[in-house]
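User: I'm putting together a teaching handout on how sequence relates to shape, and I'd like one worked example. Could you take tyrosine decarboxylase from Macleaya cordata, show the sequence you're using, and then write out its predicted structure as tokens right after it?

Assistant: Happy to. First the sequence, then the structure tokens directly below it.
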Amino acid sequence: MGSLHADNLESISVCSQNPLDPDEFRRQGHMIIDFLADYYRDVEKYPVRSQVEPGYLRKRLPESAPYNSEPIETILQDVQKDIIPGLTHWQSPNYFAYFPSSGSIAGFLGEMLSTGFNVVGFNWLSSPAATELESIVMNWLGKMLKLPESFLFSSDGSGSSGGGVLQGTTCEAILCTLTAARDQMLNKIGRENIGKLVVYASDQTHCALQKAAQIAGINPKNFRAIATSKTTEFGLSPNSLLSTILADIESGLIPLFLCATVGTTSSTAVDPIVPLCEVAKRYGIWVHVDAAYAGSACICPEFRHFIDGVEDADSFSLNAHKWFFTTLDCCCLWVKDPNALVKALSTNPEYLKNKATESKQVIDYKDWQIALSRRFRSMKLWLVLRSYGVANLRSFLRSHVKMAKQFEGLIAKDKRFEIVVPRTFAMVDYNVEDQTNEINQKLVESVNASGRIYMTHAVIGGIYMIRFAIGATLTEERHVNLAWKVVQEHTEVILGALDGKLN
């Protein structure tokens, strides 16, 4: 890779080609597709978790940008040589960490179309297709999930009822709904009372909620992470919620917002939506259902019951970029009252005023999100839905659940291990039974250092658990069997060394 050398300026040629020359775009585009196709063909050969040390790339790249243009061939060589070693391969079939970021040809090509058009769809007028396609695909997916009509756009396409919007991440979705709930409440009680507002969740709820509460100005002392237990499989107890609310009211505080989770990060626990909504509605609390991971599975009839009661919530979200084969970023958010978002998040400067907006016959999605600018995310979701259809999407999801059951069965047959939390979807929480947290941590670190598979962990109730999450698109049964073999091999070494010390 070149860099700027002042004494060579006279010999440097300037790139005269237009940066969007169609023929050159076609040539380089084919090269990129070929490069990525080869990458996916070979991805399982790479160490799943990057093995580099901090600061590795600084040692490989020049300190300044090149003054002269460089050919795509050279750049791709450097991607292979310098960038790929620093990647953790989320699309590897041996990736079982965190939650999946499942990809697909349709998701990738949809992203290409979105990026290629490069429209900035902040309002309807800025690109009508971007807005209208988004409202259509959000209704399509909402119907696949059997969401109530109150969450969907009305048949005339207006935002007069409920509706859906594509956010970047769950963090954004929660912040938007929390901000809408906050402003609704403050309009009733006075903005000077913001210090009295209280936000509720379980101690298993994603940290995105706490971050959103901080940004929205909620007093950190008024954030309630209510303890869960193994007796409720780490779901939030409605009785615990009620007693916490009553104590806050007794103290002069004002309940505002509840986040119920379907598929928590640590254990894929499911909060009981029906009774939680019953409690929350008594006190005028906005209920958001976060199904970032597990919501995708609810397009399958056998999993739909996990979101029963969503009709009583105010908002619902899932991440299509997690387990729905749509590339990052694509968070699907539905709300019953879009006007609550609009009132909290809209601005209307003169330079954005237009007849379409003033007619109130169109949606301006800039008013449903934090930022003004927005990407054409619906293009990739549209391609995923059309390219695979409901039947195939269900089949993909079921195959991952089947493989998780397979791994769960292998764990159950080996007396050295235990299933810590019952499996619900496609993630298995387990550990080496009767061993310290340190031993289990050592096992995870040893396995991951091998590069053969990648897993992550969680700690619930002081118990260290190994999370084995299946969801990478390329994963097959043979990869699950390989993972089990790797876990056994490293367990034997660690326990053998431990026995040697004891003896």
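A couple of points you could highlight for students: The longest strand covers residues 254-261. The chain has a mean pLDDT of 93.
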